[in-house]
Amino acid sequence: MSKLLVKSAGKAAEDGNLINISPESANWEYIGFEVYELKEGQTFEQETKDQEMAVVILSGSVNASSKLQTWENIGKRMNIFEKIPAYTVYIPNNDQIKIEALTKVEIAVCKAPGKGTYEARLVGPEDVDVAKRGSGSMQREIHGILPEDKPADSLFVIEVFTPGGNWSSYPPHKHDEDNYPQEVYLEETYYHRINPADRGFAVQRVYTDDKSLDETIVVKDGDVVIVPEGYHPVSAPPGYDLYYLNVMAGPIRTWKFTNDKDHEWLMK
Question: Which keywords accompany this UniProt record (predicted)?
Fold first, then answer.
């Protein structure tokens, strides 16, 4: 199995955990990523310590609170593929998050180093930038939860919906060099969901210019692909719609990338 593929546990642990990626387990510096499936009435609590955190309500309805604020009955979509923009709770470092599941709930916990610049807040559906990107068989729908123009210390958090038969993160691009302003180093995770889930799959390639890294990875529903370097396009086979949640972070919070020159002509 590829070292870039992190499989879902399939069955949630007692605390609801399905995925647990830390900087140590990924062998990188910035991103932590966890997924939890909570039963109605179950709670999730975690201190942020030196990390800022974005908790995305992937499906279901919850009450949420930080040390100083409370948000009640948030979360509208009961299934990711309803494509309703998600509710997300942003929590700075030296704070805490508590989630109480009002229904069956799936949450994604996105972490990166925090500086305490911003207060805890709710990012509601009305705050999410929704746009179509690409054309033809490269078209997908982007939900910008924490894009570059929204406040955060390190985190980028983006949802992407790719129709079956289309390509995404395409033409291929990379952001693995600390060469600002031309390019910045950003680690990235892809949390994949597939509809229908039981038979579906997607394909993600991760490769560098010199091909010292060149992997083609088959992903199933609930899998994560970590991208420490290289180009990283994704393909959704016909008949299987693809969702992924992107988390990015690095030393500079800006999105400067380089296209694969072999395929850059597709931008025209």
Answer: Isomerase
| Paired tokens of 173 | 């691009």
Task: Please give the model's pTM, rounded to 2 decimal places.
Answer: 0.97
Joined together, the tokens standing for residue 181 give: 């302003």
Q: For the CA atoms of 55, 83, 142, 226, what is the dihedral angle to 10 degrees?
A: 50
Task: Indicate the SS3 state at residue 95.
Answer: coil
Q: Helix, strand, or coil here: 126?
A: helix
Peptide bond into 196 cis (omega under 30): yes
- Cα 2 to chain centroid, rounded: 19
Q: Percent of the chain, pLDDT > 90?
A: 98
Query: What span, in angstroms and rounded, lies between the C-alpha atoms of 57 and 84?
Result: 11
The torsion region of residue 230 among left (phi > 0), alpha (psi -120 to 50) and beta comes to left
User: Residue 32, Cβ neighbours under 10 Å: how many?
Assistant: 21
pLDDT category of residue 144 using cuts at 50, 70 and 90: very high
Report in angstroms the alpha-carbon separations of 1 from 4, 102, 266: 8, 37, 32
Distance CA 81, CA 52 (A): 27
Closest to 100 in 3D by CA, of 64, 71, 136, 133: 64
Write the DSSP string, 14-79: TT-EEEEE-HHHHTSSS-EEEEEEE-TT-EEEEE-TTEEEEEEEEES-EEEE-SS-EEEEE---SS
178-184-188 Cα angle (round to 5): 110
pLDDT of residue 267: 86
**Bridge partners for 242 per DSSP:** 162, 194
Contact yes or no for 53/97 (Cβ under 8 A): yes
Determine which helix (DSSP H) or strand (DSSP E) holds 24, and give its type and residue range: helix 23-26
